[in-house]
Predict the structure.
Amino acid sequence: MNAVLPHLPALQVVVPLIGAILAAFLRRGNFAFTLTLAVSAILPFISGALLWQVLTGGPISYAMGGWAPPIGIEYRVDLLSAFVLMLISVVGVVIIPFAHRSVASEIDASKQAWFYCMYLLCLTGLLGITITGDAFNAFVFLEVSSLATYVLIAMGRDRRALLAAFQYLIIGTIGATLYVIGVGFLYLLTGSLNMVDVAQRLAAVEPDQMRTVITALAFITVGVSLKLALFPLHVWLPNAYAYAPSWVTVFLAATATKVAIYLLVRYLFSIFGVAVNLQALPVGEIIIALSLAAMFIASFVAVFETNLKRMLAYSSVAQIGYITLGIGLANQAGLTGGLVHIVNHAFMKAALFLALGAIVYRIGSARLGDLAGIGRKMPLTMAAFAVAGLGLIGTPGTSGFISKWFLAIGALDRGWWILVPAIMASSMIAFVYVGRVLEMAYLREPSAETARASDPPLSMLLPMLVLAAATVYFGFDTEWTAGIAGKASQALVQGLAR
Amino acid sequence: MKFDLILRIGTKLILPFVLVFAFYIHFHGDYRPGGGFQGGVIAAGTVFLVAITFGLAAAKRIAPNWLVEFMVPLGVLIFAGAGVAGLLMGKNYLDYSVFSANSATGHELGILIVELGVLITVAGTMTALFYAFVERGR
């Protein structure tokens, strides 16, 4: 065990990478699924061990290829990255049992092995972005995960999936380009790509070079915001989520945007925030304004969507608004609320998309009108949907309430009490769009189509029930979510330059 | 082009040199412009040349679909495997010094191995792209 422990940061990325290669060799969908299952089962142990090491012994640094940082590529695990690594791994292992039947029903048998290969590559990229301490390496992993995502979305049954994937490809590439231009400016200024080293050298730049620093900040913020679908840069997201294979939507909603948010926090708090007094710039105010727009406009659009996948996608844009609101507040409680909502939203939105995936598996449609009375025919599926939906609204007793509680405290700490009624008002809009589905599912008579439906097999049911239970559990016991997020945000906020 | 003697003989003459040149570019990539990517594209060029001169069927006898699809992950496996070799020998991932007692020789060898992986994957991918374009609409 002692021989493996120091190499865990590398293994976190190498295990899914090797898994992806082997999946491409296997060719048979069932073999590739078993392999993916095995890889998914290993990953939480690696990230769990990393989290434990960070909690007990502080940040871990791993020199890739034996080249010491800042010359070589450094893998750096601190509390924030361990937290996000843990989230990706846990979501991965919880939702993978659902994939087997869902993918078998939506993807051609000849393409299933490639599908799992692409999924594992996407996972490799997301884990890589989170674990690396090198700005350019993060760009490479961003491209690895994005390219895999485009393929995964394009594999959707609907022909519009191709267009959605192409739309995302164009916007995602623009985002990655802006990001790498920003990194280029940083490299120009500091001569370094290592994130910790860049932060240290930025603090020493001449005042007349501040304009370049701000330009780099602008490029990186906008580039990453495209990836995380910050309003109004979210246009790619609804179509991508709506037409991708059901299970891919679950995975993307729970992890992909969350990793981009991680990258934004990393740049704003550990790199620019350490070197420059961001309070002097209107960064936080701009992010808060866009977050509020997301919370209201995207929620409002969700109310009028009849395709439930698109409805949940717009709801994701709104919920990302809550997370970025916490980032914009940039104080202890606010950032804790944002970070904890990364996890809480990942769990509840995965449960919702899983329930929707099960409905698509049974009745082949995700339109609101086709769901009449389905609550009586698929009771457990709709129960998971209802519980996670309550979490989305932020009902006390669910994890969504915890996130909004911290955000409200953060807003009051900052002296912006007006944000508290705003958070409550946008929760009311969430109540409308979730309530619309529940009304249709429980209060209408089943139609001919829904009358034949029944709860899906256990392998599909279990993941959504686990995630719905987690939504309730983390509404009461917050040690693992808000506890760790609080410690991570404390370290980040204390590091900020004043 | 069945009767174009010069083209057919010329292609056959030039093919081995193209392939050798691909590996020349690969082996010199560590201290001159070049490397596995460029070498891989040139190696794939041999398949294109055969397909253009002798037809797609002849090219597919040299590089059948299964081989092309096998090459794409194989190269990545070689690259990742070179990294794992470092792990197995108790060094960090992608530490090439394990390939030889002398650290500098080990690094040179390590770069050649991973670049070979790049060559195989790029040659496979370029050929797969070529086939995809040529077979479109058939």
